[in-house]
Amino acid sequence: MDENFLLTLESLSLNREISRGVSARGVFAIKNRDPGAYLVVNDAQLATLEAFRQPQTVPQMLGRAIHRRTCLELSEFYELIVKAHHAGVLVSDSTLRTPPPPPALRKAMRFPTPLAIAWASLAIAGFVAMIALRPPAVLPTWLDALTGWLVVCATLSLGHYFAALVLRTVGGEPLRARFIWASACPRFQVDLSDACMRPLLARVATALMPVTPLLTSAAAGAAFGQVWAFVPTVAALVLFHPWSAAVDALRLLLGRTPRLDTEQHFLFSGNRWPRRRLRAFLRVEKGWSMAWYIGVGLAWIWMVVRFIYSAAGVTFSETWVQPLFWQGVAAIVIGSVGLTGFLIFTSIAAVAVRRRGARIIAQTRRRARRWRSPAASVLTEDELITTLGLSPLFRTLDRMAQVELAEKFGFATHKAWTSLVAAGRPVGHVSIIAKGSARATRRFSDGRKVRVQNLSEGDVFGAQELLDPDTPGFDVESRTPLVALTLSYKDFEDSVVRRLGRDRANRLAHHCTFLRSLRLCSSWQLTSVARLAELADVRKVEPGSQVVRAGDEPWTFFVLWEGEMDVKKGPHVIARMGSGDFFGETDLLQNSAASLDVIATRPTRLLCVQRTDFLRFVTHNHRVALSLEQIASRRLGRPIFPLQASFETH
């Protein structure tokens, strides 16, 4: 399903066929019984999913969560929704089938969890003792190697069989038992995913069982001096590495919280940025968990080195006292750390340079093209379509209206730094920029000249006399060689204003042009900018007027179009805002009273979006929501989400 449709328009319901697993340190799995899909969540995420017991869209749910102060971090929230839908926990159909009765478990041998953990503990201890005291020291012949390979295949199959018995004993359901042929070690294998629904000790026992027979055979073979034990020992060192599932399960016993599904393997497109993925990969462990990482890693390295020295016929106890040995170890460690750091740094730098470099190159090319002298007297059909597509005003018209307008457009070229519109002087036509850029300025009574906004491809100028005659006019001056499409006032009135209405045409021509030039909207799609422009009303404020009072309820999002305003905390001015600045989004997103006073110091024009319209706009545009969350968090000095409140389910 299309991600944008899923997060905006699709009505979702909580699947009735789900079941909840046993909690392990505040984290538990949710299972969709039909396809056997799992989702690992915590209490806060479950509260978010429980809200969909009543069918609703994602924007509706997000709006209620912000109002109730139960909203998760937005990247986590959207990841949760996408993964829950992918796993079948959230479904699109409001009418669901009656859950089928659980399948009857077949009678099978029982393998109690304590017995499994005891066997695994003895096997691990025996394997470590074997490596320390009597590792295999003779390279196997081809017959011994074949025997060891058969032992590895048999013990891996036996391990999965015992793991399935442990899982069935605690009420779990082994899935998709099959024999894997396309492998270096053909073996019988069972899907043990259902272990995440069971208690902590059962998870550990199920994770340890697949390698326990292998560890046992390697330790026993070496203890009796069997040459074939060389191959199982190599396999055990490879499979029982510090990041294996078995070792990862053992970390849970030391208090490590299992990772949530929203912290890894991202499906939501907004989480696929390299910085987000790197942060998830380099998640820092704390306390005993970090000590476990270091301890197990060093022990594994020691076992590997010990085994290699034994197989090479070199006495390890005599080698480690030699200074040359530690010099080699230091060189290897420093080289490995340095190489890893270099690879990570170069990878991040390459991705950053690729993204930012491509953006800079595209921007440079676009600016360079603007300075080329227009040689043609008309625009090509593709250039005309591109120009109309970049214009929020003209792209709103239907296809037939655009075709009619294309036949009425004139063509004009201007040199750089040429006056295009002078305040108070009628122009007689409306222009849309096809190539080049311009700047709109306003001159005040004291002679001061202030920039109003920048204009680029797709923006309209010369329409203020028709659309907004009550606002003082502004001058427009080209900043580069400029190519424009022109339309007479009469044609503009007949073809655009009558179809869209004067108010909507003014919002798309002037409000949207101003908004799309701001850094606030630089990463938004043009449709999102146009929607915000249509929601925004103009408010004029006189000097000394208090726009926001500390302690007031949040009702409006403001963008300062023209003028200046002071931000005060008590009697002290802590910031001064000018054209393009905005405020109010933090209070609206966290549903809290204003903490600062905002007072106009000059005649000011503001674009204002009411609370209901603002929240509806944000919740229906996940890119907008993520960018505003980042801005609000930066202003607060801490993450704005999750909001601190008790979790409620309705």
Content of β-strand: 15-25%
The N- to C-terminal Cα distance equals 27 Å
Q: Outline, from the CA principal axes?
A: elongated
The average pLDDT score comes to: 85
Helix content range: 40-55%
Enumerate how many helices there are, as a single number. 23
- What are the low-pLDDT stretches, counting only 5+ consecutive residues below 50? 94-98, 646-650
The computed structural class is alpha+beta
Strand order of the largest sheet: 9-16-11-14
Q: Rg from C-alpha positions?
A: 34 Å
- Quaternary state of the chains: single chain
User: How many DSSP E strands?
Assistant: 24
For the record, the count of structural domains works out to: 4
What would you say this structure looks like, in words?
- The protein is 46% helix and 18% strand.
- It contains 23 helices and 24 strands.
- Strands 9-16-11-14 form a 4-stranded antiparallel β-sheet. A 4-stranded antiparallel β-sheet has the order 10-15-12-13, with no helix packed on it.
- Helix 6 packs across helix 9 (230-239).
- It is elongated, with a radius of gyration of 34 Å.
- The model is unreliable at 94-98 and 646-650 (pLDDT under 50).
Comma- or semicolon-separated keywords:
four-stranded antiparallel sheet; alpha+beta; disordered C terminus; Outer Surface Protein A, domain 3; 23 helices; elongated; Jelly Rolls
What's this entry about, in short?
The protein has 650 residues and is of the alpha+beta class.
